[in-house]
Amino acid sequence: MATYEELLKRTQAMATRIAESTGVDKEFVTKVLHYTKSLVSLQSPDEIDDLIFCAQLGLRFGISSRYHLQLMFEAMCMPRKKTIQVEDFARMICIFYSNRLDEKIDFVFQVYNFNKTGFIRMADLFQMLKTCFVPFGEDDPVEQLKELVDLLLGVVDTDQDGTISLEEFRSFVRKDILCLELFGRVLPTEQILKSFYDLLNSKSYQAIKEYFLNERKKSLGENVAAIDQETSGLFPGIVLQMP
Protein backbone atom coordinates (compact mmCIF):
# COMPACT_ATOMS: atom_id res chain seq x y z
CA MET A 1 0.00 0.00 0.00
CA ALA A 2 1.37 3.42 -0.99
CA THR A 3 2.41 5.82 1.76
CA TYR A 4 0.99 9.33 2.08
CA GLU A 5 4.25 10.78 0.76
CA GLU A 6 4.11 8.51 -2.29
CA LEU A 7 0.48 9.44 -2.99
CA LEU A 8 1.31 13.13 -2.65
CA LYS A 9 4.24 12.77 -5.04
CA ARG A 10 2.03 10.99 -7.58
CA THR A 11 -0.62 13.70 -7.31
CA GLN A 12 1.95 16.44 -7.85
CA ALA A 13 3.35 14.61 -10.89
CA MET A 14 -0.16 14.27 -12.34
CA ALA A 15 -0.87 17.94 -11.71
CA THR A 16 2.35 18.93 -13.48
CA ARG A 17 1.56 16.82 -16.54
CA ILE A 18 -2.02 18.11 -16.79
CA ALA A 19 -1.00 21.73 -16.24
CA GLU A 20 1.64 21.47 -18.97
CA SER A 21 -0.72 19.84 -21.49
CA THR A 22 -3.72 22.14 -20.88
CA GLY A 23 -2.15 25.42 -19.77
CA VAL A 24 -4.34 25.49 -16.66
CA ASP A 25 -2.83 26.78 -13.42
CA LYS A 26 -1.24 23.91 -11.47
CA GLU A 27 -2.89 24.99 -8.21
CA PHE A 28 -6.34 24.65 -9.76
CA VAL A 29 -5.35 21.37 -11.45
CA THR A 30 -4.38 19.97 -8.06
CA LYS A 31 -7.76 20.92 -6.66
CA VAL A 32 -9.46 19.24 -9.62
CA LEU A 33 -7.47 16.09 -8.80
CA HIS A 34 -8.64 16.19 -5.18
CA TYR A 35 -12.24 16.41 -6.41
CA THR A 36 -11.66 13.63 -8.96
CA LYS A 37 -10.24 11.26 -6.37
CA SER A 38 -13.50 11.48 -4.44
CA LEU A 39 -15.17 9.60 -7.32
CA VAL A 40 -13.14 6.38 -7.16
CA SER A 41 -13.94 3.20 -5.24
CA LEU A 42 -11.69 1.52 -2.69
CA GLN A 43 -11.38 -1.42 -5.06
CA SER A 44 -10.22 0.75 -7.99
CA PRO A 45 -8.51 3.85 -6.52
CA ASP A 46 -7.13 5.00 -9.89
CA GLU A 47 -10.25 4.50 -12.02
CA ILE A 48 -13.72 6.01 -12.51
CA ASP A 49 -16.51 3.81 -13.87
CA ASP A 50 -19.06 4.74 -16.51
CA LEU A 51 -21.98 5.34 -14.12
CA ILE A 52 -20.00 7.77 -11.99
CA PHE A 53 -18.61 9.48 -15.09
CA CYS A 54 -22.06 10.10 -16.56
CA ALA A 55 -23.62 11.06 -13.24
CA GLN A 56 -20.94 13.65 -12.50
CA LEU A 57 -20.99 15.23 -15.94
CA GLY A 58 -24.76 15.46 -15.62
CA LEU A 59 -25.01 16.72 -12.04
CA ARG A 60 -21.90 18.88 -11.84
CA PHE A 61 -21.35 19.96 -15.43
CA GLY A 62 -24.79 20.00 -17.03
CA ILE A 63 -24.16 17.59 -19.93
CA SER A 64 -27.66 16.13 -20.22
CA SER A 65 -27.69 14.08 -23.43
CA ARG A 66 -27.24 10.41 -22.58
CA TYR A 67 -26.08 9.78 -26.14
CA HIS A 68 -23.30 12.38 -26.05
CA LEU A 69 -22.29 11.35 -22.52
CA GLN A 70 -21.77 7.85 -23.82
CA LEU A 71 -19.71 9.19 -26.72
CA MET A 72 -17.57 11.14 -24.24
CA PHE A 73 -17.04 8.08 -22.09
CA GLU A 74 -16.19 5.82 -25.01
CA ALA A 75 -13.72 8.39 -26.31
CA MET A 76 -11.81 8.30 -23.03
CA CYS A 77 -12.23 4.85 -21.52
CA MET A 78 -9.42 2.33 -21.49
CA PRO A 79 -9.52 -0.44 -24.12
CA ARG A 80 -11.58 -3.44 -23.04
CA LYS A 81 -12.49 -1.73 -19.75
CA LYS A 82 -15.45 0.37 -18.72
CA THR A 83 -13.40 2.77 -16.64
CA ILE A 84 -11.46 6.00 -17.06
CA GLN A 85 -8.17 6.80 -15.37
CA VAL A 86 -8.26 9.49 -12.67
CA GLU A 87 -5.64 11.50 -14.53
CA ASP A 88 -7.62 11.38 -17.78
CA PHE A 89 -10.83 12.49 -16.07
CA ALA A 90 -9.04 15.37 -14.37
CA ARG A 91 -7.39 16.34 -17.67
CA MET A 92 -10.83 16.45 -19.33
CA ILE A 93 -12.10 18.83 -16.63
CA CYS A 94 -9.04 21.02 -17.14
CA ILE A 95 -9.56 21.02 -20.91
CA PHE A 96 -12.95 22.56 -20.16
CA TYR A 97 -11.04 25.43 -18.52
CA SER A 98 -8.14 25.64 -20.96
CA ASN A 99 -7.57 28.81 -22.97
CA ARG A 100 -5.95 26.75 -25.71
CA LEU A 101 -8.57 26.46 -28.41
CA ASP A 102 -6.81 23.56 -30.11
CA GLU A 103 -7.05 21.53 -26.89
CA LYS A 104 -10.82 21.97 -26.90
CA ILE A 105 -11.07 21.26 -30.62
CA ASP A 106 -9.04 18.06 -30.30
CA PHE A 107 -11.19 16.88 -27.39
CA VAL A 108 -14.49 17.61 -29.14
CA PHE A 109 -13.29 15.95 -32.34
CA GLN A 110 -12.18 12.91 -30.36
CA VAL A 111 -15.72 12.61 -28.98
CA TYR A 112 -17.39 13.11 -32.36
CA ASN A 113 -15.02 10.62 -33.98
CA PHE A 114 -16.70 7.79 -32.09
CA ASN A 115 -15.67 5.14 -34.63
CA LYS A 116 -12.03 6.07 -33.97
CA THR A 117 -11.25 6.20 -37.69
CA GLY A 118 -9.68 9.65 -37.59
CA PHE A 119 -12.52 10.99 -39.73
CA ILE A 120 -16.17 11.95 -39.18
CA ARG A 121 -18.24 10.29 -41.90
CA MET A 122 -21.65 11.20 -43.30
CA ALA A 123 -23.24 8.30 -41.38
CA ASP A 124 -21.60 9.55 -38.17
CA LEU A 125 -23.00 13.05 -38.71
CA PHE A 126 -26.46 11.64 -39.31
CA GLN A 127 -26.26 9.55 -36.12
CA MET A 128 -25.12 12.47 -33.94
CA LEU A 129 -27.45 15.10 -35.35
CA LYS A 130 -30.60 13.00 -35.23
CA THR A 131 -30.42 13.07 -31.41
CA CYS A 132 -30.88 16.86 -31.34
CA PHE A 133 -32.43 17.71 -34.73
CA VAL A 134 -35.77 19.50 -34.63
CA PRO A 135 -37.70 19.13 -37.93
CA PHE A 136 -39.68 22.03 -39.34
CA GLY A 137 -42.69 22.25 -41.61
CA GLU A 138 -44.42 19.18 -42.99
CA ASP A 139 -41.52 17.76 -45.01
CA ASP A 140 -40.08 14.34 -44.17
CA PRO A 141 -37.78 14.89 -41.12
CA VAL A 142 -35.36 12.23 -42.38
CA GLU A 143 -34.99 14.05 -45.68
CA GLN A 144 -34.54 17.35 -43.82
CA LEU A 145 -31.77 15.81 -41.76
CA LYS A 146 -30.09 14.38 -44.85
CA GLU A 147 -30.15 17.83 -46.44
CA LEU A 148 -28.58 19.31 -43.30
CA VAL A 149 -25.82 16.69 -43.31
CA ASP A 150 -25.13 17.33 -46.99
CA LEU A 151 -24.99 21.07 -46.31
CA LEU A 152 -22.53 20.64 -43.44
CA LEU A 153 -20.29 18.35 -45.45
CA GLY A 154 -20.34 20.85 -48.30
CA VAL A 155 -19.03 23.53 -45.95
CA VAL A 156 -16.62 21.61 -43.71
CA ASP A 157 -15.35 18.88 -46.05
CA THR A 158 -13.02 21.08 -48.06
CA ASP A 159 -11.28 18.24 -49.94
CA GLN A 160 -14.69 16.74 -50.81
CA ASP A 161 -13.80 13.17 -49.88
CA GLY A 162 -17.07 12.65 -47.99
CA THR A 163 -15.49 12.84 -44.52
CA ILE A 164 -14.37 15.50 -42.04
CA SER A 165 -10.77 15.28 -40.84
CA LEU A 166 -9.40 16.85 -37.68
CA GLU A 167 -7.66 19.56 -39.71
CA GLU A 168 -10.87 20.36 -41.61
CA PHE A 169 -12.80 20.51 -38.34
CA ARG A 170 -10.12 22.68 -36.74
CA SER A 171 -10.10 25.10 -39.69
CA PHE A 172 -13.90 25.32 -39.61
CA VAL A 173 -14.06 26.04 -35.86
CA ARG A 174 -11.30 28.63 -36.01
CA LYS A 175 -13.44 30.63 -38.40
CA ASP A 176 -16.41 30.53 -36.02
CA ILE A 177 -15.94 29.34 -32.43
CA LEU A 178 -19.72 28.89 -32.12
CA CYS A 179 -19.38 25.86 -34.42
CA LEU A 180 -17.20 23.99 -31.92
CA GLU A 181 -20.13 21.89 -30.66
CA LEU A 182 -22.09 21.86 -33.89
CA PHE A 183 -22.76 18.12 -33.63
CA GLY A 184 -23.92 18.08 -30.02
CA ARG A 185 -22.92 19.70 -26.71
CA VAL A 186 -20.02 18.01 -24.95
CA LEU A 187 -18.63 21.04 -23.07
CA PRO A 188 -20.16 22.75 -20.01
CA THR A 189 -21.55 26.28 -20.27
CA GLU A 190 -19.46 29.21 -19.07
CA GLN A 191 -21.85 29.77 -16.16
CA ILE A 192 -21.49 26.19 -14.94
CA LEU A 193 -17.71 26.31 -15.33
CA LYS A 194 -17.51 29.52 -13.33
CA SER A 195 -19.62 28.08 -10.53
CA PHE A 196 -17.49 24.97 -10.25
CA TYR A 197 -14.28 27.02 -10.46
CA ASP A 198 -15.46 29.30 -7.65
CA LEU A 199 -16.41 26.26 -5.57
CA LEU A 200 -12.95 24.69 -5.83
CA ASN A 201 -11.02 27.95 -5.70
CA SER A 202 -12.65 28.94 -2.41
CA LYS A 203 -11.51 25.79 -0.60
CA SER A 204 -8.27 24.27 0.62
CA TYR A 205 -7.23 20.79 -0.48
CA GLN A 206 -8.54 19.29 2.77
CA ALA A 207 -11.80 21.25 2.51
CA ILE A 208 -12.31 19.94 -1.03
CA LYS A 209 -11.76 16.39 0.19
CA GLU A 210 -14.33 16.90 2.95
CA TYR A 211 -16.84 18.69 0.69
CA PHE A 212 -16.85 15.85 -1.85
CA LEU A 213 -16.58 13.08 0.75
CA ASN A 214 -19.95 11.59 -0.22
CA GLU A 215 -19.86 12.55 -3.90
CA ARG A 216 -19.56 8.98 -5.16
CA LYS A 217 -22.40 7.87 -2.89
CA LYS A 218 -24.59 10.69 -4.22
CA SER A 219 -23.86 9.60 -7.78
CA LEU A 220 -24.94 6.06 -6.94
CA GLY A 221 -28.02 7.16 -5.02
CA GLU A 222 -31.67 7.68 -5.77
CA ASN A 223 -31.07 10.22 -8.53
CA VAL A 224 -29.32 7.61 -10.67
CA ALA A 225 -31.88 4.91 -9.91
CA ALA A 226 -34.71 7.23 -10.93
CA ILE A 227 -33.53 8.00 -14.46
CA ASP A 228 -36.48 8.10 -16.85
CA GLN A 229 -35.44 6.02 -19.84
CA GLU A 230 -37.98 7.75 -22.08
CA THR A 231 -36.53 11.24 -21.71
CA SER A 232 -33.60 12.81 -23.52
CA GLY A 233 -32.06 14.21 -20.32
CA LEU A 234 -29.85 12.18 -18.03
CA PHE A 235 -31.36 13.54 -14.83
CA PRO A 236 -34.68 15.20 -15.71
CA GLY A 237 -35.89 17.76 -13.21
CA ILE A 238 -32.70 17.74 -11.14
CA VAL A 239 -31.05 21.08 -10.42
CA LEU A 240 -27.32 21.23 -10.84
CA GLN A 241 -25.53 21.04 -7.50
CA MET A 242 -23.65 24.34 -7.48
CA PRO A 243 -22.77 26.66 -4.61
Unreliable sequence segments: 222-243
| Gross morphology | elongated
Task: For the record, give the distance between the C-alpha atoms at the N and C termini, rounded to a whole number.
Answer: 35 Å
Helix percent band: 55-70%
| Average pLDDT, all residues | 85
**How many domains would you count in the coordinates?**
2
SS class: mainly alpha
Strand content: under 5%
H/E series: HHEHHEHHEHHEHHHHH
Number of strands: 4
* Rg: 19 Å
Largest sheet: 2 strands, antiparallel
Across the major sheet, the strand order is: 1-2
The DSSP helix count reads 13
In short:
By secondary structure, this protein is mainly alpha-helical. It has 13 helices and four strands.
Features:
EF-hand-dom_pair; 5% strand; elongated; 2 domains; 4 strands; EF-hand calcium-binding domain-containing protein 1; EF_hand_dom; 243 residues; mainly alpha; two-stranded antiparallel ribbon; Recoverin, domain 1; 56% helix; EF_Hand_1_Ca_BS; calcium ion binding
